[in-house]
Amino acid sequence: MTLRIGTAERDSTFLSQGHALKTVLERDPALAPIEVSTSAHASVENANRLEANDIDFGFMASNWIGRAKSGEAPFARAIALRMVAPMNAGPLFFITRADSDLHTVTDLRGRRLVVGPEFSGMTQHARVILGTLGMSFTDVTPVYLDFAEGADALARGEVDAQLQCPIPNKVMTALDAKTAIRVLPYRPADLETLLNAVPFYRHTVMRKGALRCLEADAAQPAVVNVLVTHARVSADTVRRATADIFAAREELPRLNALFLGIGELFEPLRADGSRALEFGNVVLHDGALTAYREIGLLG
Fold first, then answer.
1. Does domain 91-223 have CATH number 3.40.190.10?
2. Domain 3-89+224-295 classified CATH 3.40.190.10?
3. Which is deepest, 117, 201, 233, 243, by most CB within 10 Å?
4. For residue range 143-162, what is the model confidence (pLDDT) as tens digits?
5. pLDDT tens digit string along 77-108?
6. How far is CA 83 from CA 153, 226, 233, 265, 279, in A?
């Protein structure tokens, strides 16, 4: 039987990570073959696809999983999600053209902002970030385009800024190569406010030179992205997948740089127990619990 993994839209970071994960997991004969598929609305669609038994595992941003578990909007019903493993903690950052008069994130008020497809995880992040800083979608003109379409609109000057996803990603690399852009910084107090208010964000630094436009280190928020499954998926399947992911924690970053630091994301299990990975009160699948105990991360 084919093991099915849901990711996100074309040229997305989740899709590229999904293909790297496929490379690792298909070495386990009990898990092969593996099908990686796109999901136009990423986290939200993957939760709904898990409920519909259309996929077995799905990439999600950790800000969505608690809503899916509780059946909060935009979810029509509670979904029996279960945690499997962290995938990365990647920066979420706003970009603008180099010739723009925007200087910080709070300058976005009154501007045309690409936030992602309307029901995507990126749009939810935009709402959370702006809301924490005292703004809402009524204070900007939200533009609902995917990563590639949004980057093209920014390059043409049709929008003022775009919320981008973890690097490296093909869209951001191509845009940075052809268009003079800047990453918008946060005022230090605003970044501290955001990180203190939102439990699924972490502090990260986008390093100078990682993109052509990064002429200095840039402090940004990072979201923990995760791999989830449904309660119905067999414990043995989840145990094997979890163990294989952990065993490949040094190889995965070589296959895809988005996995850099994945090993560190498992470490809180040693000190904090299973709750370290149970974002939004979504508990670990029984198979994942077994794997982490066998590995020695949980007592």
1. yes
2. yes
3. 201
4. 999 989 999 999 999 999 99
5. 999 999 999 999 889 999 999 999 999 999 99
6. 36, 8, 12, 14, 8
